[in-house]
Amino acid sequence: MRTRFPATLIAGDGIGPEIMDATLAALDALQAPFDWDVQVAGLAGVHAAGDPLPPATLDSIRRTRLALKGPLETPSGGGYRSSNVRLREAFKLYANMRPTKTMVPGGRFDGIDLLVFRENVEGLYMGYEHYIPINDDPHAVAIATGVNTRQGALNILNYTFQTAIALGRKKVTVVHKANIMKALTGIFLETAYQLHGEKYAGQIDLDNVIVDACCMKLVINPWQFDTLVTTNLFGDILSDLAAGLVGGLGMAPGANIGHDAAIFEAVHGSAPDIAGKGLANPIALMLAAALMLDHVKLHDKAARLRQAIAATLNADNVRTGDLGGKANTKTFTAAIVSRIKSG
Ligand code: NAD
Questions:
Q1: Looking at ligand 1, which residue's alpha carbon is closest to its atom 10?
Q2: Under 8 Å CB-to-CB from 155, ≥6 apart: which residues?
Q3: Ligand 1, atom 36: nearest CA belongs to which residue?
Q4: CB within 10 Å: which end of the chain, N or C, has fewer?
Q5: Residue 322, ligand 1, Cβ within 6 A
């Protein structure tokens, strides 16, 4: 068994460097055996190397096949294409797993334990878009094309069934819109039932729900769900909704898994409204680091990190502002580090 793990580190934009410093402090306290190769992407990549995804960053991940990444800024409307989407394509990161678990009891929804799997490289996220000009309006018509393939559906669905079974989950729910987008999301639904019948029936249950009804049901009674799997855009939206059930984006980690690499990150973005103020909640990135520790089979360190976060929030009552507390990123991190060292 390997004892050290080379890994690429991208601090990211906005609050990225603040929450990455916090996460590295926690990983240091755990003596996590990662040998970091520090690289840049997003806006920081544009500033440092004139490229939102510099070749050196891609080369680094090609070598390490493992990365911890802060949020990367993407301009809305025009500007460069999302570096996150390009990373998922470059390393065929077809599965995005986003666990959503209550860590602070007593909120609006208690005892949430949901797993959301999002197809990560296909669908309406492929960015096949164009405008058709009419008369003097260059943007008179906008057209987007979504692409879902049988093989793409099989990749994410196999990963979902296998992971859910390994984690002892009981039911997978496919979320779709096959009543309207009969081909684009119908292929996903159809493949799920075929695959389940052939390989997984008897090991885990399967049902399905239309995406709009799913949103309503998640808000009224989220406990009826166990594991959700869906196409790219729906997964993006549903996982933010799920994060809202457990205290917001500051609590939601994500793992991007593919044949060629695995990249761990927070679900949230660069939070430009609070960047540089030292207010950001670093828990989502810390929980992403815990997923990364699990990925390299250091389950004991992953569990210690999660326990330290839970103890800091609940026993020490130290919380950042988004969770109703008074701590800033630095004081919260100091509390986590001291919990790890005393645990
Ligand atoms: P956002 O997730 O950055 O912020 C949404 C809201 O949540 C803001 O009010 C923000 O202050 C708050 N928030 C987010 N993370 C927080 C944290 N850790 N602690 C406390 N509060 C937090 O979404 P946005 O403002 O729509 O996007 C900003 C930028 O991030 C955009 O350029 C977008 O493209 C990018 N983005 C990147 C990723 C990624 O790298 N994976 C994901 C989503 C958005």
A1: 271
A2: 94, 95, 119
A3: 269
A4: N
A5: yes
Ligand 1: centre distance to CA 1 (Å): 37
Q: Is the pTM of this model over 0.85?
A: yes
Asked whether the domain spanning 99-247 has the same topology as the one spanning 1-91+260-343, the reply is: yes
CA 25 to chain centre: 21
Residue nearest atom 37 in ligand 1 by C-alpha distance = 269
Q: What is the CATH number of domain 1-91+260-343?
A: 3.40.718.10
Structural domain boundaries in the chain: 1-91+260-343, 99-247
Among the CATH numbers 3.40.50.720, 3.40.640.10, 3.40.1280.10, 3.40.718.10, which is that of 99-247?
Answer: 3.40.718.10
pLDDT tens for the chain, 343 residues long, are 678 999 999 999 999 999 999 999 999 999 999 999 999 999 999 999 999 999 999 999 999 999 999 999 988 877 788 899 899 999 999 999 999 999 988 888 999 999 999 999 999 988 789 999 999 999 999 999 999 999 999 999 999 999 999 999 999 999 999 999 999 999 999 999 999 999 999 999 999 999 999 999 999 999 999 999 999 999 999 999 999 999 888 889 999 999 889 999 998 999 999 999 999 999 999 999 999 999 999 999 999 999 999 999 999 999 999 999 999 999 999 999 999 999 7
Cα(244)–Cα(27) distance, integer angstroms: 26
Residues 247 and 108: their CA atoms lie apart, in Å, by 9
Task: Please indicate whether residue 43, judged by its CB atom, sits closer than 6 Å to ligand 1.
Answer: no
In this structure, the strands spanning 5-10 and 66-69 are parallel
